[in-house]
Every structure is written in structure tokens, then in C-alpha cells.
Amino acid sequence: MRTVRHRIVDTGGPAHEPGLDARVGRLESDVSDIRTVLNRLTPRIDEMYGFLTVRLPQSATNAELTGLRAETRTQIVDLRGETKTEFADVRRQSIFDIFAIVGLTGVILTIAARFAH
């Protein structure tokens, strides 16, 4: 009996499938497009990184903004109270001024009536 041995040749790649070359070509084209886009974005990314590196330490934290919001609310409430007090004082002063003017007008008219007779 004779033994037949078949040699398997290693081609170093996957078995050839129909359309594989076209798919690999599209994949290579897509990778090339991605590289092109990344090369265009790289300067922008570096620019944004530099900006954030400089600005973030100067930016307010959430806790600072919350404190500022609370302080602003307190100041607004205080301002409303002061404004109401000031308007009440102005009203009282206005009423006093009106009575003073009416009284002074009455005195002047009384004196004028005395001189008219």
C-alpha cells in the first residue's frame, strides 16, 4: 500500500473569498480618510488643550458658582428690603411736604385776605 501525502502550502493569508479584495480596498480607503481627518483635527485639538490648560485653573468651580448664586440672592433680598424702606420714607416725606405746602398756602391766603380788606 502506498501512502500519498499532500503538501499544504501556507500562503500566509486567509483563504481567498470573493469580494475580499474590494472590501479590503474600501477599508484601506476609509482608514486613509480617517487619517486625513485626524491630521486636520490635530492642530485644533492641540489648540483646545492649550486653551483649557491655561483657562481651567482660572475658571470658577461649581461650589464657587453656588456660593456666588447664594450671595447674589441674599443681596437681592436685602436690596428689595432697602428699596421698600426707602419708598416708605419717600412716601412719608412726600405726605409731610404736601401738608406743609397746603398749610403754607392756607397761611398765605389768610394773610392775603387780611390785607385785601
List the defining traits of the structure above.
117 residues, mainly alpha
What does the model show?
With 117 residues, the chain is mostly helical. The chain folds into two domains: 20-59; 63-117. Helix content is 78%, strand content 0%. It has two helices and no strands. The chain has helices spanning 20-55, 62-116. The longest helix has 55 residues, at 62-116.
Number of helices: 2
Major sheet: size, sense and barrel closure?
none
Number of domains: 2
Query: What is the 3D form?
Result: rod-shaped
Number of strands: 0
Order of helices and strands: HH
What share of the residues does DSSP label as strand, in percent?
under 5%
**SS-derived structural category:** mainly alpha
Compute the average pLDDT: 86
Percent helix range: over 70%
Terminal CA distance reads 165 Å
**What is Rg?**
46 Å
Given as residue ranges, the uncertain stretches (5+ residues, pLDDT < 50) are none
Summarize the structure.
By secondary structure, this protein is an all-alpha fold.
Strand and helix map with partners:
Elements: H1 20-55, H2 62-116
